[in-house]
Design a protein that fits this description.
elongated, mainly alpha
Length: 90
C-alpha cells in the first residue's frame, strides 16, 4: 500500500488509514460540514480580483505609519489604501 499523507503533509499509518476508512463507510453528518474556500488567499476587496501593490518605505516612515495605525485600530495596509485613494481621488 502506498504511503498516504494528509493535506498538511502528515503521514498516515495503516491503523489511522483503516480507522478513517471505517468512519467514512459509516457515513458523515454533512449538516455539520464546513465548506472550503474555492479561491486560495484573502477575500477580494471588491468584486473580482484585488491587485496587489507592493513597495518599500524607509523604516522611520513604516514605524510612524504602524504607530498611527495601531492607535486608530487599523492596519498599515488600510492606511496605505486610504492614502492612495486620497492621492488619485475617489
Amino acid at each position: 500500500m502506498a504511503q498516504l499523507k494528509t493535506k498538511a503533509g502528515t503521514k498516515l499509518s495503516r491503523t489511522a488509514t483503516e480507522r478513517l476508512a471505517t468512519e467514512a463507510e459509516k457515513g458523515y453528518d454533512l449538516s455539520k460540514a464546513r465548506r472550503e474556500r474555492v479561491q486560495p488567499g484573502r477575500p477580494s476587496l471588491e468584486k473580482g480580483i484585488s491587485p496587489r501593490i507592493s513597495y518599500r518605505v524607509a523604516k522611520s516612515l513604516y514605524t510612524r505609519a504602524k504607530k498611527r495605525a495601531d492607535a486608530e485600530g487599523r492596519t498599515v495596509s488600510e492606511v496605505a489604501r486610504d492614502a492612495l485613494e486620497r492621492y488619485v481621488g475617489r
